[in-house]
């Protein structure tokens, strides 16, 4: 990359790669490199429930642009590379190649933190059991698909009646599973008014989904072979299951933390930088960006 100015991006999904494309448009000479700890770049997380349900036939259809296509535009994408720290004074990021464990410093002139949001995992016993999943990234969806193929479960409990929970209930029912949807609040999809949520209940009932409102999962229980067999809920209901778990809220680099103005980034080295509403960070030449609903 020689003496070209270097734009480094942490996180190669929607926010990171749209920024990379825009940067390429405005500056054809810029050296651009994006690091992502995951195995996939620039894909639609929104389609993951439909990949599991078979509506999307294969995962490649969720990928907006491949690593090779980015390379054709002189944008380097390094998957399986986690950024573990930022050195603002030295203008470098520390990168760990996850396959080998090898670490190196990568210099930057401009830095974008596009590490998205991290789901907050609920403190419920049994969530580590085989058969309990959280749906967040492509790897989670592939693990759920693999489990469905291998074990052919007949019952599922979906925890959380937000849009992802609803999409999972829809897709699992489509696959022929008996689905129970457990929602803590007194209505599904709590971000809309009651009269809008009511038809959602009816539609789910039409698809045979058993909705349990004002209920929450207290424990996932072990069955044979260490696999989840049922869940205990606050309304005292048990269900044969495997679970799909998608807790909220999510924390993003741009979300405001409990400490008031600005919050620690959930990405590389929590203490490294803070940012406010404008996405400016406390680190010179570093910006934070996140897309969507996070
Ligand atoms: C199942 C599901 C369904 C969804 N459906 C919808 C929908 O219908 N409509 C909608 O608007 N939104 C939807 N969303 C939300 C949407 O996908 C996100 O808002 C969007 O992906 C955010 O993009 P992002 O680039 O900001 O963050 P992310 O997509 O989270 O990308 C951040 C990237 O940073 C990487 N990363 C994090 N830390 C590091 C590090 N230290 N080093 C290197 N890499 C790092 C991660 O591996 C990740 O690839 C859905 C999300 C999920 C999970």
CATH superfamily of the largest domain: FAD/NAD(P)-binding domain
Largest sheet: 5 strands, parallel
Question: What's the CATH class of the largest domain, please?
Answer: Alpha Beta
Low-confidence stretches: 256-277
> Looking at the chains present, what oligomeric state does this protein adopt?
single chain
Strand content: 25-35%
Q: In whole angstroms, how far apart are the ends?
A: 34 Å
Class by alpha and beta content: alpha/beta
Number of domains: 2
User: Total helix count?
Assistant: 6
Average pLDDT taken over every residue: 85
Radius of gyration: 21 Å
Give the beta-strand count. Answer: 20
Order of neighbouring strands in the sheet with most strands:
3-2-1-7-20
Helix-strand topology string: EHEHHEEEEEEEHEHEHEEEEEEEEE
Enumerate the distinct ligands: flavin-adenine dinucleotide
Mind explaining what this structure looks like?
21% of the residues lie in helices and 28% in strands. It is an alpha/beta fold and 294 residues long. It folds into 2 domains: 6-118 and 250-288, FAD/NAD(P)-binding domain, CATH 3.50.50; 132-247, FAD/NAD(P)-binding domain, CATH 3.50.50.60. The strands form 6 sheets. The chain has a 5-stranded parallel beta sheet with strand order 3-2-1-7-20. The two termini are 34 Å apart. The structure holds flavin-adenine dinucleotide (FAD). Flavin-adenine dinucleotide is lined by residues 10-16, 35-38, 45-46, 48-49, 82-83, 114-117, 135-136, 164, 267-268, 290-294. Flavin-adenine dinucleotide binds next to α1, β2, α2 and β4.
């Amino acid at each position: 990359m020689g003496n070209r100015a270097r734009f480094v991006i942490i996180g190669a999904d929607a926010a990171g790669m749209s920024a990379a494309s825009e940067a390429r448009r405005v500056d054809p000479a810029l050296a651009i490199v994006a690091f992502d700890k995951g195995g996939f770049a620039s894909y639609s997380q929104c389609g993951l429930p439909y990949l599991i349900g078979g509506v999307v036939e294969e995962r490649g259809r969720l990928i907006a642009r491949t690593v090779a296509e980015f390379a054709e535009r002189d944008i380097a994408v390094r998957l399986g590379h986690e950024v573990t720290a930022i050195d603002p004074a030295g203008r470098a990021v520390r990168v760990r190649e996850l396959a080998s464990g090898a670490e190196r410093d990568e210099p930057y002139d401009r830095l974008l933190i596009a590490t998205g949001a991290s789901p907050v995992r609920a403190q419920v016993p049994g969530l580590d059991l085989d058969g309990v999943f959280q749906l967040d990234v492509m790897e989670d969806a592939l693990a759920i698909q693999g489990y469905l193929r291998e074990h052919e479960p007949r019952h599922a409990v979906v925890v959380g009646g937000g849009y992802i929970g609803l999409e999972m209930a829809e897709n699992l029912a489509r696959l022929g599973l008996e689905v129970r949807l457990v929602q803590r609040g007194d209505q599904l999809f709590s971000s809309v008014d009651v009269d809008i949520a009511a038809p959602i209940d009816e539609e789910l009932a039409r698809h045979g989904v058993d909705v349990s409102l004002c209920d929450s999962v207290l424990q996932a229980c072990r069955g044979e072979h260490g696999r989840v067999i049922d869940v205990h809920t606050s309304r005292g209901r048990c269900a044969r299951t495997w679970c799909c778990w998608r807790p909220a809220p999510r924390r993003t680099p741009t979300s405001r933390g409990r400490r008031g103005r600005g919050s620690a980034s959930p990405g590389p080295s929590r203490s490294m930088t803070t940012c406010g509403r404008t996405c400016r960070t406390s680190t010179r030449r570093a910006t934070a960006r996140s897309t969507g609903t996070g």
